[in-house]
Amino acid sequence: MDENSSARLKRRLLGVVHRIGLFLAMLTICLPGLWIVLSSLRPTVEIMAKPPVWIPQEISFDAYIAMFSGIGKGGIPVIEYFRNSLIISVTSTIIAVAIGMAGGYAFARYRFRGKSSVFLGLMLTRTVPGIALSLPLFFLYVRLGIIDTHFGLILAYVALNVPFTIWLIDGFFRQVPKDLAEAAQIDGCTRWQAFWQVEFPLAGPGIASAAIFAFLTCWNEFALASQLTRSVSAKTLPVGLLDYTAEFTIDWRGMCALAVVMIIPALTLTYIVQKHLVGGLTSGAVKG
Amino acid sequence: MHTAFRRLAHAMQKRNRILMKGFKPSAPFLLLLPAFIVLAAVVVVPLLLSLYSSFTPFRLTKPETFFVFVGFRNYLSILANTDFWWAFGRTVLLLTIALNLEMLLGLGLAMLVEKATRGQRILRTLMMFPMMFSPILVGFQFKFMFNDNIGLVNNALQSLGITQDAIPWLIEGHLAFIAISIAEIWSSTAIFAILILTGLLAMPKEPIEAARVDGCTPWQTFRYVTWPFVMPFAYIAMTIRSLDVARAYDIVKIMTDGGPAGRTELLWTLVARTAYSDGRMGMANAMAYFSILLSIAFTVYFFNKLAAARTQIGAEW
């Protein structure tokens, strides 16, 4: 009896400890983001206040309004940056996924010599640090006259995304049983038809998440974009964020608002793909 | 005469067929061709160009220097450059600290979430939260929080009465390094946590129960049953991470830009500074090769680990 109750107590205590640990961990994860959102809604006076004001006294969307009302008032051309980011990310994602689908299919469905070294080789091109790659690209782009253009950045991002897209899509095709396509071929489909009518729809959600992942990589990329773009006509949002820090007095509220604008698409998209993303990474890589 | 001609024609046909067959590229090659072309154009060829220019005293302002060959002079002067070695050492230190802590914290977080009985879906979504932040945003957010005057960290410490001073988080060298490590760890623990959690959830429950019945302590159960099973997942996370180690550049660039006085200069910020601020492209390219080799070493190492872990538990898959 006594042993029972002490065991129960111990179990309950462990439960409490577990819950506290979980709470603290989640707090650490969420707090920085929440703080940014909160700061973007507070007047600058409150952000700067000493001693700090913990409970917001007034909430306003002024920072967002100022940001989207164009240049002026120390604002930066957010709309243009947003448009550039969107054009560059979407275009390069579409191209990268098309290329990645072909490559991923090759890895998932064919045996060929040096397969694993080809795979590793592809991955190694991805490891080249953006800043190291930016040096020759900068030089080449200046020569070719595609510096500070959408095209230049799209090209770079396609190359950046292809290896990882292949990894992910390879994983998703592996999850589709081979027999299905074979059955379709026996029933008179060509391999091409079997692919589009059987394998592609089944791997579809996975491919969509690979696409979203590629999109996010472009959307978030900084090292290359900061060197390969110069002006409003091609700068992306992450580079635009730096506009704020370049000035002597930092407009914290404006930066926070821009950060929120950047994170919302990413947040929504990641939420959609989270399930498939993990599946693609593990099945491709673990099950050989 | 006629037969000889026919024989010849036949032989030629045969040869043609063989030739045709030899030239016909295989399907996987064709499928991978677009990827090869793009990567060759955007990564391999530019890298060869930068390899060449690392042997020249190339400066952006003097294009003619591109054709002057100086052999290993850039590399020699890098090797004698203490700033470079400091940056190199700091980079390796940051990566070692960050990767190890990310792994440990990710494991802890995954186990916490796995044990949770309710709301696991929500917890998992929250856990992925930092992954969505671009490194540049992570940098900015921690720059804001660690600001000595208005930052959340100092404000909290002062309000709680722990200290009265404004701790110069981003202004003092060591503290800045710590702040950067925290930012780095915050942003990348998620990927470990998620993949390890996937492993934990995929794990069959029988071996754990068997271990418990056989009298293993919780630690032994973890060490000899759970960990070997989860390890490949941790290595996948490591591999993915190592593909992208250089993203610390973004964080450092925005938080301290290598300062104060070069105390948080990493290999990558040093490359950027040498290339774009000083305009010494040849030298920067030589440095960049060190950073490329570092990244490749990390990736190859973890790929091999991944392969080993995969074969080790291959039977169970």
TrEMBL record, chain A:
Which Pfam families does the entry mention? Answer: BPD_transp_1 (PF00528)
Q: Which CDD domains match?
A: TM_PBP2
Localization terms from the record:
Cell membrane
Stored Gene3D superfamilies: MetI-like (1.10.3720.10)
Question: What is the membrane topology listed in the Swiss-Prot or TrEMBL record?
Answer: Multi-pass membrane protein
Question: Does Transport count among this protein's keywords?
Answer: yes
A GO BP entry: transmembrane transport
Keywords for the protein's UniProt record, in alphabetical order = Cell membrane, Membrane, Transmembrane, Transmembrane helix, Transport
Which PANTHER family does this chain map to?
Answer: INNER MEMBRANE ABC TRANSPORTER PERMEASE PROTEIN YCJP (PTHR32243:SF18), MALTOSE TRANSPORT SYSTEM PERMEASE-RELATED (PTHR32243)
Recorded family membership: Belongs to the binding-protein-dependent transport system permease family.
Name of the protein in its database record: Carbohydrate ABC transporter permease
Task: Give the originating organism.
Answer: Mesorhizobium jarvisii
